[in-house]
Amino acid sequence: MEKIDARTLNQEAQEALRNQIIRLRRAGRPHKEIAEIVGVTESHCSRVWTRYQKGGAQAVAKAKRGRRQGEQRNLTPEQEAEIKRLIIDKAPNQLKLSFALWTRDAVRLLIEQRCGLSMPIRTVGEYLNRWGFTPQKPVKWAKEQSTPAIANWLLKEYPAIEKRAKQEKAEIYWGDETGLQTGANVERGYSPKGKTPAIRQTGRKDRINMISAITNQGKVRFMFYKETMNSKRLISFMVRLVKDAGRKVYLILDNLKVHHSELVKKWLAKHEEKIEVFYLPSYSPELNPDEYLNNSLKGRVHSGERAQNAKQLESKARKHMRHLQNNRTKVKKFFEHPCAAYAS
Predict the structure, then answer these.
(1) pTM of the entire structure?
(2) Tens digit of each residue's pLDDT (9 = 90 or more) over 256-307
(3) If we measure between CA atoms, which residue out of 254, 260, 267, 223 comes closest to residue 241?
(4) Where is pLDDT greater, at 187 or 173?
(5) How many angstroms from the chain centroid is the CA of residue 287?
(6) Measured between alpha carbons, how far is residue 271 from residues 165, 275, 279 in Å?
(7) How many whole angstroms separate alpha carbon 336 and alpha carbon 344?
(8) Choices 3.40.50.1240, 3.40.50.450, 3.30.420.10, 3.40.1000.70: CATH for 149-183+204-343
(9) Is the terminal CB of the chain with fewer CB neighbours within 10 Å at N or C?
(10) How high is the pLDDT of residue 248?
């Protein structure tokens, strides 16, 4: 019988051939006879039977072909673990590397310093991908931000405000101002490679501003204005907020200068039985859930058909704010951001 070159068979056929050899051998057939029946060499039958005797059925089962995981890698498992730990725990400048963030170039230099290996940039990218690292837009934190002040707010100040609000049956609002202008663009569009998409929009810069306040129960209150925020406009908004709430209001704001003006302080002192204002730690916008409403608003207003003037801009913004007012579930989601979850 013509012999079969088992190397030309797929894995399933090879496994079936090995199993046939084992069945015949267990039935008492000698290797020479099995070789004639199956169509392979006698030595191949002997090797299969020896593997089966040593390792059982698992030893002759089909296995994953190709290079084994970790085989022929430049870095040892210990070196990989060290590099991963350094990327997670340290910033480049802490390791005396002149980079602000961990880029492929920064990681390549780190590997060269720690492991003595000069690695191609593409290989560095493959290692990062294998470790589960992806390139991401960084979150910006102000250098002036005070970590102790934030800790004090989260652990002491806000819990005390929350406790007082329950005792006085007051409603807690988080407030913030934002601005919108024509010409802003936050969308991306597909186009053939090398041909940048173009968009026609007005060159005139019209602007509107808005102050808003939200609660963790999904309530939204807002007011549009065209000029910059001043004491009178802030007081006007607070008057409307108190009237609408129907009970005492605790309003949490950032440290914008107008929020601390003498006129505002005098007005608050006269109406302390209706409203109190508290201030977030300086340079900590991420602690204000209303900031995430502003992000949602800008994303919606600057998408789709472009607003060409202030009237159209306000129309789009008002439409989205009305939508949020009628959808408390979406507003509650702003409090699910990790930095704002303390207020949920």
Answers:
(1) 0.68
(2) 999 999 999 999 999 999 999 999 999 999 999 999 999 999 988 888 778 7
(3) 223
(4) 173
(5) 17
(6) 16, 6, 17
(7) 7
(8) 3.30.420.10
(9) N
(10) 96
